[in-house]
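[agent] plan:
  1. take the single chain provided in the ticket
  2. run structure prediction with default settings
  3. attach structure tokens to the ticket
  4. add a short note for the reviewer (M.T.)
[agent] executing step 1
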Amino acid sequence: MPPAPHTETRKELFLRACRREHVPRVPVWMMRQAGRYLPEYRALREKHSFMEVAKTPELAAEVSLQPFRRLGVDAVIVFSDILIPAEAMGANVEIADAGPVIHSPVRTAAQVDALVCFDPEQETRFVCDAIRRLRRELGPDVPVIGFAAAPWTLACYLIQGGSHDGFPAAKTMLLSDPRLMQSLLQKIALATAPYLRAQIDAGATAVQLFDTWAGELDATDYRQFELPALQLLLAELAAGDTPVILFAKAANHLLEFLSKTGANVLSLDWRADLGEVRKYFDDRPLALQGNVDPCVLLAPQEVVVRAAQQAVKRTAGLGHILNLGHGILPQTPVEHALAFVQAGQSAPVAAPKPEKPPVQAAASKGPFLQ
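[agent] step 2 finished; step 3 output follows
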């Protein structure tokens, strides 16, 4: 097991970064880090289907640990899928290498009403058991991340019946029957909160919400539909000291509203300038995660190293978890993934600035914009 540099444990580094405290180096992990770019993952998948791995705690934990052993990442995300809760809610889900398929897409009020809020320790216990196994394997010094889909992103799949450019069926429901869309988003939020709570109770150090399709919404629709659903989800979750990371893809136009969700860490894709976003959030305790383009890892190693270093430089290392702007690509050379991780872990961070004296008038403000 590779040691963590400096005196802080990986978990301490990760949590301090989430709280926007100064760290001697940034923590690094990668979305989809347990996946097809690793030969040991491909070897395991030759024997087991995706869902067999996801629903077998021993296999899910093993796959989750592979990038930690190979790359020395600073956080381990449990191997699962964002459509697991959809299946537990009653949707007929099929997940294959070609992509997810939801048989009988959810497009009527009766279908929305038929979706249920489930007991995560019953219907999705395998996810919690995988997290518990990871906690035992990793000990107290390595953070484990749980996750779920954000309401809009899960609704896109449920309504469309699978992945589709632009998700026209989901947008049609939003435009033609906004109350039904709001009802669906609310139901997803109320089902997702206990699902994430169960992951925290099982030992997750942090949880991440994947809003991969947030950028499909304009600012008006995001404010009217997704923002209230996320706020409801996080209010019901009541994560307390457990950080909540929100990944929003292609969402530069939504920064004003992303800051109001209640998440502690905002994960952005490569379209965003981390330095400019940091300035935008300078007066708010919101950490950043990201945001190197996954395609960069296909370039020569010196390009990979430079991209990781530049991402850290743009944030001065303050409140930054280095990551990719989306999932690592299957064709990524393992040595390039390793170069990314090591470059981020060794990148210099700025010295902490002297604390500003407290402003009396700001004492009553909450941690996020109202």
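[agent] step 4 note for reviewer: Strands lie at 76-77, 92-96, 99-103, 144-149, 206-211, 244-248, 265-268, 287-292, 320-324.
[agent] ticket updated
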